[in-house]
Amino acid sequence: MRIVIVGGVAAGMSAASRARRFNPDAQIVVFERGEQISYGACGLPYVIGGEVEDFDRLIARTPEQMRARGIGVRLRHDVTGVDAAAATITVTDRATGQSCTEPYDRLLLATGVSPVRPDWAVTPLGGVHVLRDIPDGEALDASVRGAKRACIVGGGYIGLELAEAMSARGLSVVMLEKGPEVAGRTLDLGYQRRVRAELERHGVDVRCGVTVQGLTGKERVSGVQTDRGLVRADLVVVAVGVKPNVALAKAAGARLGRTGAVAVNARQETSVPGVFSAGDNTESVHRVTRRRVHIPLGLTANRMGRIAGVNMAGGEARFPGVVGTGIFKTFDLGVARTGLTQTDADALGLNAVSVDVSSTDHAGYHRTSRPIHVRLTAEKGTGRLLGAQLVGENHLSVKRVDVVAALLGERATAQDLFDADLAYAPPFSGVWDVLLVAADRLHRQV
Q1: CA angle 184, 189, 195 (to 5 degrees)
Q2: Where in this chain does the record put each Pyridine nucleotide-disulphide oxidoreductase dimerisation domain (predicted)?
Q3: Is position 151 annotated as part of the catalytic site?
């Protein structure tokens, strides 16, 4: 059996490793257009900010390590076409420019996503960046060294983390967000405002409801033109979102979902026999709503890849779906969410209610206790737990979100969360853990 994987990193390399374990006799080849096959992309902002020594620290596995495990790795190779009828792919060697066809018995498309670049961001000006992979990070790091004023366009995960990183490097930072608040797709309004307040407390100039119209400058960017005037900047980071890379899936004849990502079944199979898809280019099922969603996150990609690897190698495994759990840090604030926000529930027409609890992350009498804010959301009538949002001044404390995330997969109720036997000790938990307090109040309302 010949298993061909297009794309490395989380999904591709997880699939390759799992397929090798499950079927030691399979021939496995990974084609990667870049220089690295396995690295922690989530760590990129922390290298920029100086919390991680260098980009090499993000490398998880080298090509040599994977080859030693019997997995073929071909770097700097672009897969440009798929002929599903012939079960072949077209590959171009970026070093020589030569193209050839390669056969497969099973094909995995792990092509990931690309940063969205609005028309105004397609420019030859220096100092304009996106951040998706290590080469992006290296280019951005080089620009930071000669910059004084940074403008971050977009208030999502990447933008929020980079605001802290740029500030740590001594730059003045302006954040432009088209929506009414930062973290708009992640949190409800009150929690968005807490994040914005943290940015502003650390000197970030946050401007929401602003539309970018263009860039100014000669060889290097000197400003960002908006509908509310010019923002002076010699460094611009475009962080307005990502789009799934689906060109190869289309070439293979695979069906795309309503999200625009590749549609698959629970075995990560596309609509084309023998062709699988996993990772950021692929949609999944939301375990709370049962709807198809596209939530490109590293752990999700890793899990999808494992499932695809087993099935391509002849086994049987199924991906259960996602609940949309996410977490990030900006300055001294940790932020996490899982499941649905109240805004999400309202948009879906669910009869939902939320409760908010503000307390301390552990016993208030302990000298290290810090404020934490929790919102739980449930369905009225059934009490079904829908989601949680946490914002805490000790960023590690918001990992409590994992408790709710685990319960969401079981379609638990607010009462089930209240009944959970959570660990307690003063340095770790409050006298009555903040999650239990919120669950008790929520149960009384549903």
Answers
A1: 70
A2: 331-431
A3: no
